[in-house]
């Protein structure tokens, strides 16, 4: 990463006196915090996959990645250990690129396999109305239309989250670990 890409030319700033603050504090802090968030949440989401490495065999095979017994543990390791590497800023570009590709496939999956139109059939909606005491007020509200509105929200959040994580990983694949990364430290040492 070239540092000049992130320099703030005082002539282009609305408040030129803040240029030094942006260069020395705001940008490094944002770069590190975002890298920790991207890597940390990848590792957090990858932890259940590491503890059950073959749990996604059916999922990966539904996307035509065969054999699932190979791809499922690889996906788990990629997400968990890749997330830790991104968080540390170690081998950042490689870990971020691999995760970015995996997340782009996830994004494709969310668009091609939407959650559906509703949870409940018309008979289910009727059962909800006649057995209202079995459901909280929030559940009754969310499921009154069969869950269609709720599923739309879930679908939108899945797509938006996938866009966010895919973009974040590709950002680090393009620019590297940046400020306060092990990669940068190693580059200075060697």
Please summarize the sheet with the most strands: none
Q: Tell me the β content.
A: under 5%
Secondary-structure-based class equals mainly alpha
Q: Indicate the low-confidence ranges by residue numbers.
A: none
- Which radius of gyration do the C-alpha atoms yield? 22 Å
Helix percentage range: over 70%
Mean pLDDT: 89
Number of strands: 0
What general form does the structure show?
Answer: extended
Q: Report how far apart the termini are.
A: 16 Å
Number of helices: 8
SSE order, as H and E? HHHHHHHH
Give a description of the structure:
With 190 residues, the chain is mainly alpha-helical. It is built from eight helices and no strands.
What is this structure's SSE topology?
Blueprint: H1 19-51, H2 57-62, H3 68-88, H4 92-112, H5 122-130, H6 137-143, H7 148-175, H8 182-189
Helix pairs in contact: 1-3, 1-7, 3-4, 4-7
Keywords:
about 190 residues, mainly alpha, 8 helices
């Amino acid at each position: 990463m070239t540092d000049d890409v992130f320099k703030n030319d005082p002539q282009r700033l609305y408040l030129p006196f803040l240029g030094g603050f942006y260069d020395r504090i705001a940008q490094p802090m944002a770069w590190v915090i975002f890298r920790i968030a991207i890597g940390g949440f990848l590792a957090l989401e990858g932890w259940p996959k590491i503890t059950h490495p073959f749990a996604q065999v059916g999922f990966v095979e539904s996307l035509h990645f065969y054999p699932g017994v190979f791809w499922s543990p690889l996906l788990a390791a990629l997400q968990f250990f890749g997330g830790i590497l991104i968080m540390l800023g170690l081998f950042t570009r490689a870990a971020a690129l691999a995760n970015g590709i995996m997340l782009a496939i996830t994004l494709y999956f969310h668009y091609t396999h939407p959650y559906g139109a509703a949870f409940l059939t018309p008979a289910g909606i009727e059962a909800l109305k006649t057995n209202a005491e079995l459901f909280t007020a929030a559940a009754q509200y969310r499921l009154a239309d069969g869950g269609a509105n709720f599923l739309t929200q879930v679908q939108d959040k899945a797509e938006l989250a996938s866009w966010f994580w895919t973009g974040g990983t590709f950002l680090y694949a393009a620019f590297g670990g940046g400020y306060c990364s092990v990669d940068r430290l190693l580059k200075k040492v060697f």
